[in-house]
Amino acid sequence: MFEKKKSNYLEGLRNGDRETIQVIYTIVFPKVRDFVFKNKGKHHDAEEIFHNALFQLTVRLKISEIEIESSFEAYLFTMCRNLWRKELNFRKKWVRKDELTTLKSEEYNHSDAIIDQERWELFEEKLRLLSPNCKKLLKAYFKKVPYDTIVKQFKYNSENVAFQRIFKCKKQLADLIKKDGNYEKLKG
């Protein structure tokens, strides 16, 4: 039952197969729940995020084919992680007078979340095309590793050299993204 292939999961979601959905839930939800718990969430938050991700993935599957480079579990977990981070950012905007107002838009726009996921996938796809050194450097940069640490880790002569190298890698990544045929569709 747990040995389903990536294509079987996708086909099961596309067709609404309950057994496949249950297997996905059994395998992936505990990881999502743990991530949400570690990042200021509760059980119902994890369930909502997980269900939103499954819904968005199902909608995308019914519209077009999806090519998943990683494992299905990693792909779905990343979708959930991105949705939870977006939710946390949304909640931060509603903090007033030390009180957290959990106002949520009644019309949660799933199409926006789908587009965000497609943007993320385009970004990851193009990041994989960079040199190994650029990938490592940008991953450190995106994790907000301090420049002095980057200098030591990559054995650069100065922070200025690290800054220049990061700038060049970011430019290469941006150029790859802009050359992709989906860029115009996703940029707005």
Automatic annotation (TrEMBL):
Annotated NCBIfam families: sigma70-ECF (TIGR02937)
Highest taxon in the source lineage: Bacteria
Matches recorded under Gene3D superfamilies: 1.10.1740.10
UniProt keyword annotation of Magnesium present: no
Keyword list, A-Z: DNA-binding, Sigma factor, Transcription, Transcription regulation
The protein, known as: RNA polymerase sigma factor
Transmembrane residue ranges: none
Entries under SUPFAM superfamilies matching the protein: Sigma2 domain of RNA polymerase sigma factors (SSF88946)
Keyword DNA damage: no
